[in-house]
From TrEMBL, chain A:
Sequence ranges assigned to domain Aldehyde dehydrogenase in this UniProt record: 111-574
Lineage: Eukaryota, Metazoa, Chordata, Craniata, Vertebrata
InterPro entries: Ald_DH/histidinol_DH (IPR016161), Ald_DH_C (IPR016163), Ald_DH_CS_CYS (IPR016160), Ald_DH_CS_GLU (IPR029510), Ald_DH_N (IPR016162), Aldehyde_DH_dom (IPR015590)
GO molecular function, one term: aldehyde dehydrogenase (NAD+) activity
Active site residues of this protein: 351
The name this protein goes by in its record: aldehyde dehydrogenase (NAD(+))
TrEMBL record, chain B:
Record GO terms (molecular function): aldehyde dehydrogenase (NAD+) activity
SUPFAM superfamilies registered for this protein in UniProt: ALDH-like (SSF53720)
Pfam family, one: Aldedh
This protein's UniProt keywords: NAD, Oxidoreductase
EC number: 1.2.1.3
Active site per UniProt: 254
Family named by the database record: Belongs to the aldehyde dehydrogenase family.
First-level EC class: oxidoreductase
InterPro entries, per the entry: Ald_DH/histidinol_DH, Ald_DH_C, Ald_DH_CS_CYS, Ald_DH_CS_GLU, Ald_DH_N, Aldehyde_DH_dom
Domain Aldehyde dehydrogenase span(s) in chain numbering: 14-477
Protein name: aldehyde dehydrogenase (NAD(+))
Source organism of this protein record: Pavo cristatus
């Protein structure tokens, strides 16, 4: 197959691809959408870097290309239903927070008020208005949840005695239930987090369901080994659950981070005490109901809405929690690991911040690179730990790249996240909103060139204009620190040796990308970058099969893939004396 | 001017400490100074880390070396250690006090096997290609973590060095190793062999020095990517905390234990007595996995205790260079006093002293093989790690009870059960929360089999394929492709 620009357009392109069940020709990676969005022929994401077409198609269409890439491409998505009860087909449910049973603390498959009786408001970031009050768990509630979890983990308990295959069945059932309530959950996610409903529905929920099904499959396949030990012994390993796992998840992908954490923990037979982010507790608490409905025994999963310095700290420092997994900022990652060190030496895995370099070599497909660099930074309102927040462009294409990136940022549709045309919703809360605007003024003050955006994008809610800085220097604050917002930094470089040095010169090492058509450059650069994920000619590509995690201060350990199981297993070596060994 | 082998090894060269300080290393059999050794501290650690980082630069000889050649170098190092086996065993005995026969036959044997084992892994730690959804080609590379700080203890100086170097070097890392101030000599001798084997300068750097200075400098260093520590749980907390407060370096810990050794009434009595003795007294009781809670089922308790006391009394304590000696001195005065302190605590708290309990010689740090009977689980000697030749025997009735009691410890390093009953063996070995469970044996180690703790006994595993994980970063590389086909 030829890769040249334009080769894959029009009839030639269609003929190169298989015909689907409806007799329609489609790109192998093209998401099948029924109903409202007939843009199959023009879709640009599926045919690789050579297929970028004219690169100037409508913004809504670019949004769709982004979605399908994040979903891993090739996914068969159902129609995008309107949010709300109609989409659910369940007339007993209204899209009304008052009817949510799940605004409390979930322990032992039951709902509890906080022991302190305290509550906190969760806010709709599109309006700044309070959605509802949620129980505020703290140390006392964590203690209660840990007790429940420990009891569920006792030798001889239903959960410990359950067939591994049945754990897989329960995880698949949970995935089924999430699929059943997909539109409702997506709407809840949008309401609480601000991300566009179309993204929540097509990307987040798709990945949640796939993640749970993926780990369901692992539940009876995390084999121990038999080991040819020297001497007259029979030696084998069992991979046993670590025990009570504290899991502290962030607000940027509330449901997906919940699935990333629950999937491996439950597949391997652990019990969980999960703290969900105070900004976005609603969807994870709704899932708690589904966990019960799926049939997980009481105490196996316990979910506490609350704040980091209280509930999160209590988990990290708890003497009867065997392991803590945290996704969030590097700053808090230090605190979590320290608390583990000072308490019971619980195992620690961390998925932390990043300042990921996205390197555009001059031989890259320009349309595709501009498109992907935009996606790398602006996806999810810029609230991705792996955001491509240092866009390094080789000098001979720098001017054109910057110009087109600015154009693209300007045309990004910011607005009501429930509107299907919206590409960018509000930031998650006022604190983030202010922090981002603060970074923008720092950027200007330190001499970076503001090329577009830079201001709030609406009168209310936490909307920020898509912002692009050019002529950024590596030592500027906006090139060193994680902004976690829709603010793109573009830098210039000359040589590959130089850019590897500069790309690696960061305390972070979460992700990186390189865009090039040259196979030698692609391999050299991807080996040289010190990052847990290197994307080549793409960005933000995730799948449950592929491990994710940081080098350096971006984290400890890996999530997803087979590697993601390791953090949830203790290896037990059993060595038995035998009378006589034979090979 | 110190001789090579008594200095700091950086960049395949010998250096005095930057401070010019030295410390004495002691022969524990006599209490006399063997020699002075350079005392590395923070400044020397910085220097060693710089050398290691340089050796790890992209394009360096070590980074560009074929993986198979790393295996060849490790095998060469094993060859050189075998060549100098008697000398090394003698050095180990002189500095540590363990019987020469054990050093030669056990420690050195395991050192050589460990290095050869990891030599074989050097070109076999495969990444994966991954069937990722979408039009992508996805694979993982298992890359070296980078600069690895390694802090090793004094109880098996050479073996702990091999456990640390084997996986780190097989996977292409560079090392800054701090060796214990009690026993620096053998590891420093090996430094010469590392150079002779042909490892490039800066790949292995070895610093003799103290924990609170050199060890702390490694743990808190901003340019050390990973720290591996073997030692006490107390210090393990400090190491992990320093990692948390500095650069979030990866941490693996092999720490203390209070390992239960469970003797069921159907066990082979001779074998069980023999192994329970070995479980506790091996290496002067200075094993993190020592079977230091011997639980005996009530109907055989009396006989078991009697025979264990008999066995302890007949243990030969003496000059470690004498081939008949089974037990040498404890490693230093501090340990010697600590152990005697635990013995008086045991007596004070009401445990029954059945034999031993005193120093075993007029000079040197020898302690009599000591057995306590009627020990209760809440006594200090049943909770804390003594790290000496002091055996605690407890009585139990039922299997359910003993599982509960065995697991009731902050530690979870090792455990053992002696029984002829296959159902009991399987039930108990599944129920015990420990990284190693021995069935009808104790202290069985091999490079093939993973070792490491549950709970506060550690984080991570050493040895076996599992032992590679701590020295690898997984890099996921995902490439856009025009069209995927299965």
């Amino acid at each position: 197959m030829k890769l040249g620009r334009g080769d894959l357009n029009g009839a030639e392109r269609r003929s190169a691809y298989p015909t689907d069940a409806n007799g329609q020709t489609r790109s192998p990676a093209e998401p099948r959408r029924h109903g409202t969005e007939p843009r199959r022929g023009a879709w640009r994401g599926g045919a690789g870097p050579g297929s970028a077409g004219d690169g100037r198609s409508g913004t809504a269409e670019r949004g769709s290309a982004q979605r399908s890439d994040v979903a891993g491409g090739g996914v068969r998505l159902p129609a995008l239903p309107r949010p709300g009860p109609a989409a659910l087909g369940r007339s007993d449910l209204k899209f009304n927070a008052d009817l949510l049973a799940s605004l409390q603390i979930f322990i032992n498959n039951e709902w509890h008020d906080a022991i302190s009786k305290k509550t906190f408001p969760t806010i709709n970031p599109a309006t700044g208005e309070v959605i509802c009050q949620v129980a505020e768990g703290d140390k006392a509630d964590v203690d209660k949840a840990v007790k429940a979890a420990r009891a569920a983990f006792q030798l001889g308990s239903p959960w410990r005695r359950m067939d591994a295959s049945h754990r897989g069945k329960l995880l698949n059932r949970l995935a089924d239930l999430i699929e059943r309530d997909r539109a409702y959950l997506a709407a809840l996610e949008t309401l609480d987090n601000g991300k566009p409903y179309s993204i929540a529905y097509l990307v987040d929920l798709d990945m949640v369901v796939k993640c749970l099904r993926y780990f369901a499959g692992w539940s009876d396949k995390f084999h121990g080994k038999t080991i040819p030990l020297d001497g007259d012994f029979f030696c084998y390993t069992r991979h046993e659950p670590v025990g009570v796992c504290g899991q502290i998840i962030p607000w940027n992908f509330p449901l997906l981070m919940q699935a990333w954490k629950l999937g491996p923990a439950l597949a391997t037979g652990n019990v969980v005490v999960m703290k969900v982010a105070e900004q976005t507790p609603l969807s994870a608490l709704y899932v708690a109901n589904l966990i019960k409905e799926a049939g997980f025994p009481p105490g196996v999963v316990n979910i506490i809405p609350g704040y980091g310095p209280t509930a999160g700290a209590a988990i990290s420092a708890h003497m009867d929690v065997d392991k803590v997994a945290f996704t969030g900022s590097t700053e808090v990652g230090h605190l979590i690991k320290k608390a583990a060190a000072e308490s019971n030496l619980k195992r620690v895995t961390l998925e932390l911040g990043g300042k990921s370099p996205n390197i555009i070599l001059s031989d890259a497909d320009m349309d595709w690179a501009v498109d992907q660099a935009h996606f790398a930074l602006f996806f999810n309102q810029g609230q991705c730990c792996c955001a491509g927040s240092r866009t390094y462009v080789q000098e001979d294409i720098y001017n054109e790249f910057v110009e087109r990136s600015v154009e693209k940022a300007k045309s990004r549709v910011v607005g009501n996240p429930f509107d299907f045309k919206t590409e960018q919703g509000p930031q998650v809360d006022e604190e983030q909103f202010k922090k981002i605007l603060g970074y923008i003024s720092t950027g200007k003050r330190e001499g970076a060139k503001l090329l577009c955006g830079g201001n709030p994008a609406a009168d209310r809610g936490y909307f920020v204009q898509p912002t692009v800085f050019g002529d950024v220097q590596d030592n500027m604050t906006i090139a060193r620190e994680e902004i976690f917002g829709p603010v793109m930094q573009i830098m210039k470089f000359k040589t590959i040796e130089e850019i590897i040095e500069r790309a690696n010169n960061s305390k972070y090492g979460l992700a990186a990308a390189v865009f090039t058509k040259d196979i030698d450059k692609a391999n050299y650069v991807s080996q040289a970058l010190r990052a847990g994920t290197v994307w080549v000619n793409c960005y933000n590509v995730f799948g449950a099969q592929a491990p994710f995690g940081g080098y350096k201060a971006s984290g400890n350990g890996r999530e997803l893939g087979e590697y993601g199981l390791e953090a949830y297993l203790e290896v037990k070596n059993v060595t038995m004396k035998i009378p006589q060994k034979n090979s």
